[in-house]
Structure formats: structure tokens, C-alpha cells
């Protein structure tokens, strides 16, 4: 497993940031329904745990922590995805920065 860790600053309230992230997870689920299955998310206040299967054979899991001025994502990628770790981090960071602007 490859570890991924991303911190994205924001200027929103924690509640607004959590709401936007939850909405995004729902959009991702429908947009990539052919590639992502078994998407689970569980929130406890401003901390969310997620897991899903990518392409029905790769397990991905992690935690999203929404802090007063940043969102932290920590997760595990399957070994096969470790070759694309930089690209994956870049895409997530870009999408998060747009979402939290």
C-alpha cells in the first residue's frame, strides 16, 4: 500500500467545508459509477472515513479531517496505484482547492 497525505487550506466555516466535501463524494459516486463501487463514508463531526473499490479490484481507504482553516486527507492506495501517486495527489489537490475556494 502507498500512503497519500494532502493538506488543502480553506477560508470557509468547518460546516460549509464538510458540506461541500459530502456533496462532492456524492457527485464522484455518480460520475464514476462504472469505476467505483462499494463507496462507504462515515462522518463523526468534522472527521470522515471513506473506503471504496476502484475498478472492482483495488481497495482505497482514508480519512478526511476538516479543521478550521484546512482539510487533511490521509489514505492508502493499492500498490498498483503507487506508480501514479503523484498524479493522483495532484488531481485531488486541484479538485479540493476548487471545491474549497
How would you explain this protein's 3D organization?
- The chain is an alpha+beta fold and 101 residues long.
- The chain has a single domain (2-99), classed as START domain (Alpha-D-Glucose-1,6-Bisphosphate, Chain A, domain 4).
- Helices cover 33% and strands 42% of the residues.
- It has helices at 14-31, 85-99, and strands at residues 2-9, 36-44, 47-54, 58-66, 70-77.
- The chain has a 5-stranded antiparallel beta sheet, covered by helices on one side.
- A hairpin with a 3-residue loop joins strand 3 (47-54) and strand 4 (58-66).
- The longest helix is centred in the N-terminal third of the chain and has 18 residues, at 14-31.
- The model has no long low-confidence stretch (mean pLDDT 88).
Label this structure with key terms.
101 residues, alpha+beta, Alpha-D-Glucose-1,6-Bisphosphate, Chain A, domain 4, 2 helices, globular
Unreliable stretches: none
| Class by alpha and beta content | alpha+beta
User: How would you sum up the global shape?
Assistant: globular
- CATH level-3 fold name: Alpha-D-Glucose-1,6-Bisphosphate, Chain A, domain 4
What count of structural domains? 1
Share of residues in strands: 35-45%
The H-level CATH homologous superfamily, spelled out, is: START domain
In short:
With 101 residues, the chain is of the alpha+beta class.
Which SSEs are present, and which pair or pack?
Layout: E1 2-9, H1 14-31, E2 36-44, E3 47-54, E4 58-66, E5 70-77, H2 85-99
Antiparallel strand pairs: 1-5, 2-3, 3-4, 4-5
